Amino acid sequence: xxxxxxxxxxxxxxxxxxxxxxxxxxxxxxxxxxxxxxxxxxxxxxxxxxxxxxxxxxxxxxxxxxxxxxxxxxxxxxxxxxxxxxxxxxxxxxxxxxxxxxxxxxxxxxxxxxxxxxxxxxxxxxxxxxxxxxxxxxxxxxxxxxxxxxxxxxxxxxxxxxxxxxxxxxxxxxxxxxxxxxxxxxxxxxxxxxxxxxxxxxxxxxxxxxxxxxxxxxxxxxxxxxxxxxxxxxxxxxxxxxxxxxxxxxxxxxxxxxxxxxxxxxxxxxxxxxxxxx
Length: 278
Known about the structure:
Rhodanese-like_dom; 10 helices; Thiosulfate_sulfurtransferase; thiosulfate sulfurtransferase; Rhodanese-like_dom_sf; EC 2.8.1.1; Oxidized Rhodanese, domain 1; 2 domains
């Protein structure tokens, strides 16, 4: 939960690097993440060998009062999925999406939280893959049984009380668009939280910004020193793009999974409005 820089394997992989790993025959498990599967869309084409994964049913748990929109999955649920996708101890799991990049970031976070040793986010998703000369196919991959045993809790999380305290003792980032943070259209933010919309991690090309640019962005918010860092958003998805960007810099940040959808479910919790932390 601390923001101390450490040497870590990058959680991000480029399309070119992915193509090289596949060409070398590495054990790569590809997951195309969609928020919700829609049979009416038909097969749009996927990276060769990719499994299509629905975020809300396979990488999130059932909702309950106070849980927020996208609760964490149970260990048994995630274990069954990981085995079904053929994930082994030495597998490199690469997640990507053709939707909002935060969808893939949430998959990266959830699988890493579940103890999958090597999970990478494909920078630029399908567009970057095709730009690098990669093909798309319509065939689903053959089923295989993986041997990885998951261990949930492998990344730090916050509950509502911890998020509120961190907003005062460290840095709590709000990854929603600025209008949601200020309460322009209703709502507001957790008192003490700083605005850092998740879209700010991306360049105009849809790729993550350079480490230099990201480091400067977060340093302006007081991130990168010794203090603890946490992130929330609307429903625990957008925040993971901030966490991914920070992980790329070697900074660990905790996720408040319930995020605003859980915080605002209790009318007794305080709400700040405007463009100041409050």
